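<instruction>
Derive structure tokens from the sequence
<data>
Labelled lines for chain and fold:
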Amino acid sequence: MFLPYGTDAPVYHYPVATIGIIATNTALFLLTGMGDCGGYDWLILEFDQINPLQWVTSAFMHGSWSHLIGNMIFLWCFGLIIEGKLGWHKFGLLYLGLALADGAIGQIPMYLFTDGAGGALGASGVIFALLAVAVIWAPENDIHFFYVWNWLFHGTIDVPISVVAFFYFAVEFLQVTWTGFSMSTPMLHLLGMSVGIPFAIFMLKHGLVDCEGWDLFSRLGIGPLSTKDDALPRGSKGLPLFQTAPYRAVDQLRLGGILPPSTAAARNQRYKEGGSGLPLGRQTNGESTRPKRNACASAFESFARAIRANRIEQAVTCFDRLRENSCVAAVPDSTLVAYINLLSKTDRHTERLLPLRFLASRSSKYANNARLQIAVIELRHNCDPQSAIKILENMRLPLTEKLASVRKRLLREANARLRERQQGETEPTR
């Protein structure tokens, strides 16, 4: 027996709505006969009518204690993952929308194409929809399971959400294939999963959820799905990193130097190293005053082009050229962010450290996020909890609620590892 009880996905919002939904399900179960619905059939999904009210109410009705408890355990687990990203208000609306869609896709075809006999109840359709949402938003995060085998062997195991989703899809699909493609519990579960997919993609596309670059599309290398200015994949699973508008290399290059975008007058100012300071386009004694491109500009243009094309080796080489010419200080934050995120795709942690340190040293909105990334690398890849603690303690205040939550979690992990190391050093050798 496997029972889910938690997740390693980042939980930035307390699961208020999830607890409320569990409480509502339990209360309705107690108030409507504890499975013996009797006079409450009008609350379940009846196939002899089309009733939008039942699309919602049927998702809160259950036929037995085991039916209720099983559904609520999985609801808690998926609620942690999804509400943890959305907050209670968005999650509540999402749950209501999934219930409506799941109820409609179950009731309408049965009413139109069958004799309308029978009905359905339970939250499992919506829970399977939440599973589909979870696998699109956080496929590489784990679900913590407690397992028991013959009451002799027990323990815990972590299973990736993608594996959980594939397993349950396979089980339900095989049952449907074996018993025939008719309305049944496995078919309702599959319909629930089909409902969750468009909801997940829609919210991701329109920036209604921040998956921090760990959504399914980003991990498959398809690129950011959101139409908003979302960041590329982060360097640590579930860690909030950078959100920045797309950089434009051409707009960052200004007449042989690397300067921020400015006015038309500034765009026409020539690079003054060895020049007369005359505007571009003017001529003196029949010769153009246009300067030659300097090393910084050339290196930056190649650097930005390599990032745009996802050519990581070329980007690393160009970044080294920028460092050799002392040009990194002039590279815009957004371009450094894009470079860091490109390196994170292949887990090149050592190479990420240097651009992260440059970004952390600046007084910009990305500085604290960069410090979090550095702390993660020091803690989990360099096994240096002392450095991680020092970096986390030097973060600039005030912090947002999300950053403060991640910092607190990392400090707790770093202190725990430091204590383990100190205890190991003090244990006497035999």
